[in-house]
Amino acid sequence: MFNSKTIITACFAIVLAGCTNLDEDVLDEVLGGDSSNAAGALAAAYDRLGDGTFTSHGGMLAMQEYSSDIGILPTRGSDWGDGGKWRAMHEFTWASDNAVVNDNYNNLTNGITRSLTAIKTISESDEEQKALFLAEAKGLLAFYTYHTLDLYGQAPYRDPLNLDAPLEILQAKDAIDDMILEVEALLPDLADLGEQNTHNGRFTKQAAYGLLSSMYLNRAVFKDRYNANSNFNFSEAAVSGSGSDMDRVIYYTSLLIDSGRFTLASNYFDNFSINNSGGPELIFAITQKIDNLHNGSNDLAYNSMERNQRCSPSNRGTNASCITPEFYATWEGHHEDPRFTRKYQYADGTWFKNDGTDVSVPANSIITGTTLPWFHFNRGIQVGQQYGPKLTTAGGFEMTTDGRIKVSALVCEKSATTPMVFTPELNFDNPTQAVFAQNQINRGTRSFKYEFDPQVGNGASNVDISLYRLGGIYTMRAEAYLRKGNNAAALADINILRTSRTREALYNNAAGVAIPAIDMEILYREIGFEMYWEMWRRPQMIRFGKFDAARLTSAKPASQPYRRVFPIPQQTLDVTKSFSQNQGY
């Protein structure tokens, strides 16, 4: 972990030393070629995406979901107190010394540093793919800077080609226009996905279209962050091209939707599964691999599972984050939507339905490279009594006499008299504090959106993490259409998402059901159905004017507009006077 002093120093020095010690094989894995200095510097910039920033529950998930109406990480008895840093994200009590706020600022600005380093190194190299590598490095710089401006309102920059250039502090309301122009200028030098040895883990033209769509969609918020009534000007003339910001969102999202390169997965949860590498929806993703060199992170799956939920005798969950009552309530009447939950079928036809009717599942699903049986939990939002295997005193799964894994009703590991009943209600003893007693640790429905990879301990994973995927692109285009008053086009896009997803064979592969009409409230609900737990909710709430309101059933009070951005860490302010603290902090 880099502290603010390290980051600022690196911004001045523009050196790679200390930023990364990536293995040569990892460089080849990322870039698909020999690791030269230019390739190594670029790989280091990519590495910051997957080194906790977008793969850890404490990274962008904490910033974008725990602060939203979707997710929360409460203190659960003896666990997850940690000085209150997690519950502060939902209670809106964070300050400039909050560890979550500080760590993510350091990660993102370290991404800026690594990108600037890559730009300098590539510019001075004789790399054969110099123009491509340089465009990718600049694309990553824009990606990290965009997220820093989104969360903190300010971001550091220094001309990487001029060692005498001063440190600049970019301000969101001014920098967003320049960033849009800069990314658009990169398009001729970026590769199309799949060309020039690229894959969806590289910053391609298609990744740039996703970033440009995001920037145009949120440009009005960046320019008027503290608007008291959330009356953002989404009809402002675009910084380039013709029409308004929403016209440009429609333009760039349509380039992706109409390209024929991507298709919606009928099984929604395939997008978040172990075998999702190269998936049909993934436009820009963090490619993860268990290779004993740079193992991927399992945190987005592991964090929500209860400690007695075990995919193998040696792997378990950690009983931390959960869904808010507010978000769970939006699914009322929509539990048959294919994105709500999906049951697992074993190769012999056995279903695990997680409803008490299953007494056993086959044990012949074996974790690669081991003799351990693999128990497959259901996916999506899990509610009510939970079922699964229990451990014997010898440390293996309880088995039936015919060699199958025995399925039982589960209890919580750290409160054995508390049944593992995930309740939609949280019912905190003190409604203003997200704190549970030890016998209340079962509360909160859980997000099992990402598949738990049981191969190498709790921490490693092969699941690629989507940064931009086709489903999200449809939601952005639908929002742009609706903000322009084209309800029919917005409804068509949302219904494409709904009807393209299908349920499991247990329900005859039934397709999702179209809705008859749409307005802003319905669209907001539908974006949640498609994009929950994918680290985009906070900016969605701000755009829709919902971020400031109290969420009393999950301990969030009414808040002032200044909370729409996080504070600059105090440790950064102590190092350099170039920054000033954000309004309200």
TrEMBL record:
Cite the entry's keywords alphabetically: Cell outer membrane, Membrane, Signal
Enumerate the InterPro entries for this protein. SusD_RagB_dom, TPR-like_helical_dom_sf
This protein's record includes keyword Coiled coil: no
Which intervals hold domain RagB/SusD?
280-585
Gene Ontology cellular-component terms for this entry are: cell outer membrane
Spell out the subcellular localization from the entry: Cell outer membrane
Alphabetical list of SUPFAM superfamilies matching this protein: TPR-like
Entry keyword Hydrolase: no
Q: Which family does it belong to?
A: Belongs to the SusD family.
Protein name (record): Glycan metabolism protein RagB
This chain's source organism reads Flavobacterium subsaxonicum WB 4.1-42 = DSM 21790
Q: What is the lineage of its organism?
A: Bacteria, Pseudomonadati, Bacteroidota, Flavobacteriia, Flavobacteriales
